[in-house]
Amino acid sequence: MDSNHIIAWFADVGLEDRLTVGGKGGSLGELTRAGIEVPPGFVVRTNGFERFIQALDAQAPLRAVIEGLDPDDLDAVTSATAAIRERVEASPLPEDVETGILEAHAELCGNADMPVAVRSSATTEDAEDASFAGLQDTYLWVIGPEEVLRLVRSCWASLYSVESVSYRLKHKLPEAGVAMAVVIQQMVDARAAGVMFTRSPTTGDRSVVTIEGACGLGSAVVSGEVTPDRWVIGKITGEIPVRDISDKHIQQIPKAGGGIVEVPLPDDLRKAACLSDEELLKLRDLALKAERHYKRPQDIEWAIDRHTGKILLLQSRPETVWSSKDAKPVAAPAADPLSHVMSIFGGRK
Amino acid sequence: MLDKTKGFPLPSSLTVVPGTEAAQAAYPYYTQFSEEDDERFWFYNSMHFPEPMTVFDMVTAEAAYCALGSANTRVHCLPTTLGIDHRIINGRVYIGGNAVTDPAEIARRTEEFQKRAFYYYANWERLYDQWKEKMRVLIEDAKALPKPELPEFEPLEHVHAGRGVASNHYLLDIYQKSLEGYFRMWHHHFEFLLLGYGAYLTFFDFCKKAFPEITDQTIARMVAGFEAEIFRPDDELKRLARRAVELGVDGKFQEGASADDILKSLEQLGEPGREWLRELEVSRDPWFNVSVGDGFYHYHRAWNDDLALPFSALPGYIQKVRAGETLERPIEQLMNERQQLIDGYRELLDNDDDRAAYDQMIGLACRVFPYVEGHKFYCEHWYTNLFFNKIREFGALLAEHGFFAATEDVFHLSHYELEAAIIDLMTSWSNGSAPRGPARFPKLVAERKAAIAEWAKHETPPALGHVPDVIDDPAIVMLWGITRESLETWLSAGEVDPNEIRGFAASQGVVEGTARVVKSVQEISRLKQGDILVCQITNPAWAPIFQKIAGAVSDIGGSMSHAAIVAREYGLPAVVGTGQATSRIKDGQRVRVDGGRGVVTILE
């Protein structure tokens, strides 16, 4: 792809494009390539950010100001970053950047009222570290091109939060290497949504897929506003030995005019399973597809479209908790295969 | 941690139900609790003996524990355990294991065990073939035993042949041979059993460690065979259904018609009817020797003795044949599915060591498991049925001579008393005087019948005495699934949801339906399409009615029980081993069966 392009569609990128489309953008592209449906969208590549910051830097120094800060002088960092964020949020975009985003948005939405998500997409592994705060900005149910442009700048501004800047100063990371892509994709008006893991989060068992979900938008599950239903499904067998159906008192749904609203769930839905067995098995298949594609256990966000009934994956990233532990063999092969039975007959060791 | 303060009552604190003391005393002295028994831990064997046992039926416990003990203690020399003691109170069987705890003794027994058990494992196929031959001979011998009879005069041909020994002597001869055969059969039953379970459990433990959330039933499916004898009775019914259609006699098999009526109408049909009846005879011997229970109670009758169950299933199968459906089990497909399961889990293992160990363990488990699946038909079903029917013949003879009113009353005499009654009859026949039994037994039988009815009304504690610190007796864990965890559950009983009944997750799926609490085979005709069968035992003999029902719940059985295997094959949600479903669920209630979690919920 022409490296000058400001916009990239999901189908055209993959994980190897991380430096220009960020982790989130690359991952959505990768899923699309693997044949897994995600809500359609595009990425504002890092050169959009680069063009914008260069333009700002030309008007008045920006990067040099940051590199000149003393990380231990919190007051100075606070006031300098506030001023920079204000500049980032208030300044108009270079014309070609703005046109690129608006054209892509129009192509994605058809009509301007279609809500989208605007999500920051960081380019470095470090950026996914929880300590590198401020980079996980996601704006949901954004309606209209003006709002999209504003929030793209908000994503970029988050790179100049006190925490982000302090982190870079402490680790002596050069400002020239700082970049951020922004993902813009259609919102899913979810009938049910949630997360799933291709191994057990509680035991690390790789033979199961654990699915958690609730009615309405997935934000209620991710933020912990509602206790989700929970299922454990055998990866190989498709059996569902665990079904914990919770009392889901509320659901989050899109608000007219943008944003989300929390509403009580009707009584007949509160204590009913939010997914059918058929949907559970389809989710399992998608989880396995993602795991096979990435060749390692995955942590996935999913949603079911209220209108089409389609299952979409919103995100898939490597599971990190269990994968970082050393897996010791459970048993070793024995010279005499019969001697294994001594583990039962030989008594406690 | 186990809450010891909540512990179980001591045996000495358990009282015989007032008014049943004499019936309690009828059980042998060596099965009565004594003071020393307070020092030990006992649990109620509700898995095998869920109801109060008549004094004769107790021979099953006696013969089984005698054989199990000798296999463990003296034959294979299990390192950490000897045999199992049993005690009886209020008709309930309590059992307690004898653990070996001295490390030096465990080491000495380990050396012996490896010389013996490992030889069995190494030569399994040859020894199992030999076992089948021994069982065949044993069964032939039992079948060859004549019916006990006392003619008024010794038949002339006996006299002319110079037989010399009179008919009354043969009563004792037949009885003692029957009893001897039954005790011997149980030795065969345990010849391989613990070793088979042990190899299975070795693989099971490995899977639980490698895949902490794998279900018991999944592991079971990886090891289960598909051509075990226990599937044959149902297969024979399917064959008979197909033959009925082929011979054009299928119109006689109407839903709701009694077996007798169907048999009579077939006889009147001429050659095609007679041809079908000949086919029936082929199937009956031996495959209708399958018991509708676990074969531990005299009233668990075989299909052969009560055709109601197999015949109630035939109309359904016939309809399927007419509709062009395939009734035969898709063996090849089942085998492929099993192989996919084995390969799928293998692939999930993290490293080569685990994969190599997995291969070794499942290799052994699959080699030895056919015995664990196959022995039951020969032992608990076929032989046990022959034995109880022989005792019934003595019951009929004694009833005829006024010892008691009905044939079945014989099961209220202990096997010692029965021998005494037989000798009494032999003596009186030889002397021409009246037997003494008729003055003695009717009162005892009445007393004991009343006691059994009374005992059935009383709950009995699931365990007695001090809980040992460690329960790793492989026999107890394997055969009864008793662990520290299961004892915890027993101790906390009463704190659970009153509408929930928990058991083993036997076959996955969730289904709701109307509960039919079926206490005997005579009641199965009440089952309607889509009902939930609630019974004491979901035995493979019940398999033919699985085509009708939507789910099954039983009081007895584990996730490796044959019932569970059959339920999985029928794709029917099943929860087994609940211990109390038939007493807690009322007929007609709506229930939900979650066979994946092992939970039954009463919905109303």
Outline of this structure?
Chain A has 349 residues and is α+β, with helices and mostly antiparallel strands. Chain A is 34% helix and 22% strand.
Provide structural commentary.
The complex is a heterodimer of chains A (349) and B (604). Chain A has helices at 18-33, 46-59, 63-67, 74-90, 95-109, 145-157, 162-170, 219-222, 267-270, 277-294, 342-345; strands at residues 7-9, 41-44, 116-122, 138-142, 180-186, 190-197, 208-215, 229-234, 242-244, 250-254, 260-264, 298-305, 311-318. With 349 residues, chain A is of the alpha+beta class. In chain A, the strands form three sheets. A six-stranded antiparallel sheet of chain A has the order 9-8-7-6-12-13. A five-stranded antiparallel sheet of chain A has the order 1-2-5-3-4. In chain A, α4 runs antiparallel to α6. Chain A starts with 6 loop residues before the first strand and ends with a helix. With 604 residues, chain B is of the alpha+beta class. In chain B, 51% of the residues lie in helices and 10% in strands. Chain B contains 20 helices and twelve strands. The chains are: A alpha+beta (349), B alpha+beta (604). Chain A binds chain B through residues 200, 203-208, 232, 234-237, 239-243, 327, 329-334, 336-338, 340-348, and chain B through 78-80, 100, 106, 110, 113, 117-118, 121-122, 195, 198-199, 201-202, 205-206, 209-215, 217-218, 221, 340-341, 344-345, 348, 350-351, 353-354, 356-361, 363-364, 470, 472, 474, 505, 508, 510, 594, 596-597.
